[in-house]
Amino acid sequence: MQKLNFNINGKHYEATIAEIEHNVAEVELNGKKFTVEVERAEAVVPQIATPRPAAAAAPVAAAPAAAPKVAAGANAIVAPLPGSVVSISVKAGDAVKAGQQLAVIEAMKMENEILAPADGTVKAVHVSAGQAVQQGDALIELA
Known about the structure:
Number of helices: 0
Strand order of the largest sheet: 1-2-3-4
Structural class: mainly beta
Distance between the termini: 33 Å
CATH class of the largest domain: Mainly Beta
CATH superfamily of the largest domain: RNA polymerase II/Efflux pump adaptor protein, barrel-sandwich hybrid domain
Order of helices and strands: EEEEEEEEEEEE
Largest sheet: 4 strands, antiparallel
């Protein structure tokens, strides 16, 4: 559950996001409950230039490069929230039925089942057990 407070044109709003499954969220806004469809927007992070000291400093090891993010195709099942992949129940080539468990993601000490939205065949599995994922990362692609 996530609580948000914000002001729009001087009016205060309090929102509680109770549950997000796939791209559908249960939201309470100022005491009224809504079921909303969530669209993924890419976060924009401003680049801030940092001044370099004039004197030579000890070299700093570069951070390891992040694993390349897999682009989510039209039939990709994406992570509904950031977390850690607990298990993957399918492999490429497996036939799946709508509602079948494909994976489990742990987030905020809760396990979230990732279910097949429709019948299909697993085209690719983009994650493995133990891997950290961000919201919107491609997990599994169906054909």
